[in-house]
């Protein structure tokens, strides 16, 4: 017959008094079991699977728009650094664009290997329309010029995706600043010179 002797000097320590690394792991400090936490994570993953496809399309259009702006700034710097005009070809139908450096009567491929080959838009993105000056096209090819003094042809480029979201890129005619927006850009109103000022702008003949 065995006799269980009481343990002398042994005290029960409350769970909350234990260090975090020694506490039981089957329940979090907030009182949630691991099963409950796993269930919440499962539900969150299911919700993200419904939201992420929509976000990816929007981010794709935005990223392409930002790359387009970055490319135009690069062409502007290329013209200023080399002191030669750069002609940007935009093929609306094929979703492609590429720069060429004007050297006298010849066109040369830029030395930068980034622009050695035409850039193609992703399959989900296309050019909706391109306007340079007063000429606007939805098909065909357009040309935008970048000049050695930093000036750029006034241009409006609209990009769109499979959900018909619009991204507009606008080159201001005076400052040549490049702006990007998430809606369609209206062409600027042509400046009109008042009749009373026109005589002052006429050249003076000796």
Walk me through what this model shows.
With 206 residues, the protein is of the alpha+beta class. Helix content is 26%, strand content 26%. The protein has 2 helices and 10 strands; from the N terminus they run αββββββββββα. Strands 1, 2, 3, 4 and 7 form a 5-stranded antiparallel beta sheet that branches. The longest helix is centred in the N-terminal third of the chain and has 49 residues, at 34-82. The chain is extended. The N and C termini lie far apart (136 Å). Mean pLDDT is 78; it is low at 48-58.
Low-confidence stretches: 48-58
Secondary-structure class: alpha+beta
Oligomeric state, counting identical vs distinct chains: single chain
Radius of gyration: 32 Å
Average of the residue pLDDT scores: 78
Q: Which term fits the overall shape?
A: extended
Q: Beta-sheet strand percentage?
A: 25-35%
The share of residues in helices is 25-40%
By DSSP (H or I, 4+ residues per run), the number of helices equals 2
How many DSSP E strands? 10
Q: Main beta sheet, described? A: 5 strands, antiparallel
**What distance separates the N and C termini?**
136 Å
User: Strand-and-helix sequence, N→C?
Assistant: HEEEEEEEEEEH
